[in-house]
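User: I'm putting together a teaching handout on how sequence relates to shape, and I'd like one worked example. Could you take OsmC family protein from Kineobactrum sediminis, show the sequence you're using, and then write out its predicted structure as tokens right after it?

Assistant: Happy to. First the sequence, then the structure tokens directly below it.
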Amino acid sequence: MQATVKWVDGVMFLGESGSGHSVVMDGPPEQGGRNIGPRPMEMLLLGVGGCSSFDVMGMLQKSRQQVVDCRVELTAERAEAVPAVFAAIHMHFVVTGVELKEKQVARAVELSAEKYCSASIMLDAAGVAMSHSFELVEFNP
């Protein structure tokens, strides 16, 4: 896997993934930014959520759950001192569907956290307190 991050100006950078996708990262105005893109640490947090969401949805689809929506709400705490690393991250999955089986959703979230999500497992190994929860919402069209 490869990526490139190029300085644009001030505290704005353009990241390009090896698959050819680009994203602008920027800082707040008080740091010389224009606030037109996420901060690098926000990108890391989004990456963890995306990685885990890929796993959870894949497992739910394989187990033939009728999911109509899935989102993960991420809450992170950072250390007070520099470097302001993540100290804790909580992932709360909200899964909406038709007659979802709680046991299947719980298993998918657990397997992602403990076995499949490279990003969250890597952060956990680095000392970030990772936690997760979920809730089911019955779809009513």
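A couple of points you could highlight for students: The mean pLDDT is 97. The longest strand covers residues 66-78.
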